């Protein structure tokens, strides 16, 4: 429990009070709505002002109906034209208050709910960045992304609806109901009978319409994606002369959108006209029953007019309130999703651990590892790599090479055994500080959106332009960069200039050179390149590899031969380790791998001559 309850110096009653409030807070926070309300702790005044102005907005126009009654019942019979000016002044005054209160209420409500939404989004993004890679192995990005963007928006829409719609509508409906009762209780009760009718209509249609909207949106998305896809594969379509086939396929989708649209919007129209019908019915009742009452001297003409003008103030908000139910459900679902994500504590917690100064020695001690329980990926792997040593990791696809790299970076911790960087157990160091000193060049996701300059600077955020150019030169990238439309400022994001695979890799290498790491991991950095760009990139990599501990995962023979040692991985076991000559002489696993990979290649002829 918390420290208050254990503190002997505090008087018992105070301790109990603290304990109680603490427990109460915890219990209340279990409810997502209340937890959400706590988010407004420093925005109370704004939220309160938003609510007060909403109430003012709600009641400010209602007295106008009473003015109408007065005109008809008092001023007209008395033929008193002088009062008209006064009525107009009051009416305009009420409208001025209404307009002012509406704008003020919107401003205060929006500025508090949007601030909370902004904070929730920022907190979600921060939270997601702190999550371990294990979390990302389990979760789908396509499902995480909408939680940050859409679910928070739903919460915001709900919060605004609660203040602006629910509060205002409830106050207006209540105030006008009271007035209706005061003017003529019997007629008012007749009007109230309409409310269940509204409810029935709303409930009958709401599921139908919601479903309709959903499938309409889905059809739209599918049409959009099929057109998108077609445009993307236009070369293929043309080369196979499949235009008529594609036309048929796309047209089918377009037809379905039409079908759905006609249905949805017809249903919407039916729904709306039925609602209007209830309003019309109520008006009919007021005028017929009201007329009968007036004839029998139970009501005045002015009361009928006041009644009919109040009717809209009563029925519209009731209608809105019933319609709001869905927004609130959606908001609650949004809240549950947002807090559900924030409550997952699969974060990397190492910021409090000591920052180490990496020299470059890496040791695996009997490392076992599994991504999923019971599926071992590394079995008892042990090795020790000196600072500055160049190691090639070799093995078939799926052997565990990338996994070894992941563990050096502390992306995952061993299930058994230890990973040591310069004698420091990786589970006991500050991981962000460690990763600052490790460079990675891999095959995918190598660029961030933005300019070339910012991409290289990502390796060292405070680098000067001269340092960046020097790194680019070492990476064989300077020449092609200066040839780009805006040189170093060229945008290479999604909407920017397209670079070749080799060019991208050289930018990634420049970034790693700038970072100047003590340990370098090259995970198939050149695998996706054609041999020509590979040669240029290899050249760049030479500069990068110089003078640091390197783990090189590559299939190119010359790279493997150049390494000080070769580690051969087979289904998660480290089966052989040694330099090229040793392993070839042993005629074991590496020898077989070599035969398989390089025997038929021209390369082999060249290299064997070179040996
Ligand atoms: N994130 C992951 N979640 C679950 N299994 C994984 C994950 N990454 C890799 N694996 C599995 O671990 C094994 C080793 O993969 P990996 O280290 O990527 O091999 P390599 O890089 O040698 O091709 C493979 O069987 C692969 O399917
Ligand atoms: Mg791999």
From TrEMBL:
Q: Name one GO cellular component term.
A: plasma membrane
Cited Gene3D superfamilies: ABC transporter type 1, transmembrane domain (1.20.1560.10), P-loop containing nucleotide triphosphate hydrolases (3.40.50.300)
* Membrane topology listed for this record: Multi-pass membrane protein
Question: What Pfam family does this protein match (any one)?
Answer: ABC_tran
| The organism's place on the tree of life at top rank | Bacteria
Instruction: Show the stretches that span the lipid bilayer.
Output: 47-68, 83-104, 157-177, 183-201, 273-295
Keyword Membrane attributed: yes
Checking SMART domains in the record gives: AAA
Q: Where in the cell is it found?
A: Cell membrane
What CDD domains does UniProt report for this protein, alphabetically? Answer: ABC_6TM_exporters, ABC_MTABC3_MDL1_MDL2
Q: Where is the ABC transporter domain?
A: 362-596
Has keyword Amino-acid biosynthesis?
Answer: no
- Which terms are listed as keywords in the entry? ATP-binding, Membrane, Nucleotide-binding, Transmembrane, Transmembrane helix
The parts of the chain that form a coiled coil are none
Domain ABC transmembrane type-1 positions: 48-330
Q: Cite the GO molecular-function annotations of the record.
A: ABC-type oligopeptide transporter activity; ATP binding; ATP hydrolysis activity
Query: What coarse category fits the chief subcellular location reported for this protein?
Result: membrane
Q: What is this protein called?
A: Lipid A export ATP-binding/permease protein MsbA
